[in-house]
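Incident log entry.

Two folding requests arrived from the same account within the same minute. Monitoring flagged them as a possible duplicate submission, but the sequences differ. Recording both here for audit purposes.

Request one:
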Amino acid sequence: MKLNFWNLFRLAKSEPVPADPLPEKLQEIIQFYPHNPNLFREAFIPRSAQQKNPEGESLNYERLEFLGDAMLGAVIAEFLFEKSPSQKEGYLTQMRSKIVSRKHLNEIGNNLGLVGFIPNEFKHKTSLSNDIAGDLFEALVGAIYEDQGFERTRNFIHRIVIEPYVNLQELENRITSYKSYVLEWAQKHKVNLEFNTFEEKNAEDITIFVSIVRLDNVVTAKGRGTSKKKAEENAAKRTYYSKQNVMS
């Protein structure tokens, strides 16, 4: 019986699938030959490509991204639990959030060159988000788990994430969200903190937001960004650096 494209995705994990080999660079990253190479192709299909399988179901990296996110969280949690036996839940949660932050995953995905594995037919015809590199990394982790199981996924995360990037002493001092940091500082020191964010009109056809930070009703900093969230984060970052002597 001739196998169609979608049937390849439904084969058991233990059965090798006859298919074209993966790109050499991707093969070097994962360091094994997958049972089902099509899972790894699915991991690089953006949702905006609007691809569907023969049954009419969407075919993109989002399901694998969901799975990869869970696997990353589990492996990092296990690492922190064993590495920091005297630390409480709050510390472990904070460190895990820093390790799997969107910014950090984007950095890892970019360093691996994952965007380059998106087929050109999709790359040039779809819009890619600013977080695409991190999304693809999570999808890749999901594909590894689905294809190989937990142990190999765990080894991959240790090799690619933990060993080269995770230094707990440095992470303790790293600020992943300036807005969260400034909010916590203001609450702790009973300082009235206010973000006033609005859309700025400009001559170009680009939406820009401006955020003004006030501490005890005194304007401290302004930040701009292409979204409300980015504008407030930039304003909070400027607030932190302008008050670093009292906030550190």
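Request two (distinct sequence, not a duplicate):
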Amino acid sequence: MEFQSILFADTPMELDRSIPAFFQDLHLDYILDIIKHHTTGDYQTDHYYYTFPGSLQLVNYRQQVFKDLMDGVLRQAVEDFCSGMRQSRHSYMLSLECDEPVRAAVYHLEAALSYWEALEKFGDCLDSFKPVSSGISLLKEYVLNHIAECNENGFSGAAAGAKEIFSQMCFYMDLNNEGVTINVKDNTETREERDYLAELAGLLQVDGNGTDNQTVLKNIFPNAL
């Protein structure tokens, strides 16, 4: 069985989008609001509570997953991973809303770095954890394989290198009677002029021959290409 879902295993199930009639009768809607406030935050999880497991096997699958989650280290790792994903999604949405290309690229880079940092930390925890449930076991295999693929295709190295170049970028302000001009070049002869875009292209080998690296660059800076 391949990893499909931590909730539904490999069982195809359609989520119920409407609240069951008895929820309000039993005040379950009130309890659900408390759960959401203290745990899920901005995640839209209502329909998962509306949808009941379709078999006893699926109930057992979930119970075994929860037994693994009783481990405090794993549970904290899951919470940290979710927090990292929220930060990544927030930065990504800012990149879509930003009209300035360079700023949008920076937001997109922040999203990629938040995603990678959260994924690596989660993978480190899973690597040292010995799960009992098939759900966490399959999730562990899936996450570790995904991290290995990201390392192999250059994503992690490209993101780290781009972060280093962005952190070294300098802008200069020229003050004169005509106003203020912001340049990426230093007009004095005491500083070395740097072409940051060329450095990024060189880092990712975007020269017509590095197709794979160019794909990575587009994934990190889609609004700047």
